[in-house]
Specification:
The structure is a homodimer of 314-residue chains. By secondary structure, chain A is of the alpha/beta class. Chain A is built from 10 helices and 13 strands. In chain A, the strands form 3 sheets. A 5-stranded mixed sheet of chain A has the order 3-2-1-4-8. Chain A starts with a strand and ends with a helix. At the A-B interface, helix 8 of A face helix 8 of B.
């Protein structure tokens, strides 16, 4: 009987579960709503695992869970912005008590980083920076070939880094954090401001109203080759680059993988960010180019990575 | 016959050489001017080593060299802001050709980090952030117990990170990098601006003229308990903290060691920076305090660390 490892990405409203073969091929995939409350969340995780085992008619050897937020090295959810009811919640230990297999719980961006490193756009890159551009920004690092989690498990909260300390105050209470400008929310705000100023008519047409323009309208306008959208994308890329270059100064990665929902924009995003990084980075003349790549595993990356991390724990 | 390892810190104008026992005790120490030119610099390094061996009447087993700037993993000086004539200069290989012992060449802040980790304020801290506040800012990291150098050897150039992207343009050409505000130069500029505004009379008295006020006058005024200087120090600490908290979000260190010339200010600097970090860091309620400490090895830290790194290469 073939054996599998499972990974589940727990988001604010949905849970995505996958089962992987030893060759990291996805053989089962389940999407479920996330119920409210810690106990119900644990119950749903157990049920998703059982459903996949039944579907595969096989044993699942280990479970990995990825969640946005600060996850301790012991697999407790210290705090999650998307799931505020989970505070100092010992999810790993609770799941271990319910299941007879190894369980790991980790940050979702950390899990996605491991997936892209192991079987995605970061294959073979020992010093890798993964940046998920979604509603907010999540990051993860492979350093000297290993996933880096930090002293407490909280490394990679790079969306919070302040890049404009006299800028506008973010919902987090901080002025000018990177993720206010370079996330999907940042793209939407930029697009609306351009739409209202009359410099993104294609966006207004797609959205019906300037105040309704969102990141997805930029994506569509870029795909249609709209010149205003491409110009808007260049400005957005400069916001992405200011944080990426900060991280390059600190970590000196060999490559950067962009993940998250904004990857739907495709190669125009990659090319624009690559150009912005190349022209922003100090000392470009004496350092090798830091290659910007698009993630390859899409929306399943965190679930796949969580499963791969769980396999390492067997 | 006892054996020793040597470390030499190569600065813009001076070279500081030490020889260490196996217990990291400094047994010989030489200070020499740095001659102009790559060949003369190599010659001076060889002579300092010979002088220490002669003084100790002992064999020196390995040599480590620390230099500010981008040092490749092969020990070449790619670029050094303090020694502009060294570009893509294969210093390690040249020294290996001259000497019959192992030689390592590394970034000075990286070497100082290793020294403070091994026998200074960072003893036993597996995830350590070292920040040298000198003319500029240099940083080094111990991550998961090992020194982290990055893909090319350029990690830790954190002085360049942009914290105020609409701020004043730095000499590097970048707007609002951290080291413009949080270095010795930044402290001097802040003190002069306060002196000229009439809010730092003690500094004017010490310097003779408001336009002549420098960081050292702040240090003296702080030591004399001047209230204006302490207030100025709190503002300076907020500039230090914005970069430190950015690094904490990225790296999640267990402790921060402050080194460099500004450590002469002493505990008031440490206390003020600790307070600023504690109050600036998001999510302080759910994460352990990141302890801020003062470096213990003083101006010799880079030389001592270079020697320790060389010992590991024997």
């Amino acid at each position: 009987m073939e054996s599998y490892v499972a990974g589940i990405d727990v988001g604010g409203t949905k849970m995505l579960a996958v089962a992987l073969t030893e060759q990291n091929v996805v053989r089962s995939e389940h999407l479920a709503p996330r119920p409210v409350g810690p106990e119900a969340t644990v119950e749903q995780l157990v049920e998703l695992l059982a459903a996949m085992a039944q579907e595969l008619d096989a044993r699942i050897d280990a479970l990995g869970v990825g969640i946005a937020g600060a996850i301790t090295r012991a697999g407790a959810v210290q705090f999650s912005p998307n799931i505020p009811e989970l505070v100092a919640f010992p999810l790993r230990d609770l799941l271990r008590g319910r299941l007879d297999i190894p369980v790991v719980v980790d940050n979702d961006a950390t899990a996605a980083t491991w997936a892209e490193h192991g079987s995605g756009a970061g294959r073979g890159v020992d010093d890798l920076l993964y940046v998920a551009l979604g509603t907010g920004i999540g990051t993860g690092f492979v350093l000297d070939g290993s996933l880096y989690r930090g002293a407490h498990g909280f490394a990679g909260e790079s969306g919070h880094i302040v890049v404009d300390r006299h800028g506008v105050t973010h919902i987090s209470g901080v002025r000018g954090p990177w993720e206010m400008y370079a996330s999907g929310n940042g793209l939407g705000a930029l697009a609306r401001s351009r739409a209202m100023a009359g410099s993104f008519p294609a966006g207004v047409e797609l959205a019906g109203d300037a105040a309704e323009v969102r990141g997805e309208h930029v994506t569509r306008a870029v795909h249609e080759g709209d010149a205003d959208a491409l110009e808007l994308l260049d400005e957005f890329a400069s916001h992405v680059a200011v944080g990426l270059t900060n991280l390059v100064y600190v970590l000196d990665p060999a490559a950067i993988v962009l993940g998250g929902g904004l990857v739907d924009i495709g190669d125009p995003l990659r090319a624009s960010v690559q150009h912005a990084v190349d022209t922003t980075l100090l000392g470009g003349a004496y350092r090798p180019q830091v290659e910007v790549r698009l993630a390859e595993l899409g929306a399943r990356s965190a679930a796949i990575g969580a499963a791969m991390l769980a396999r390492d724990e067997r």
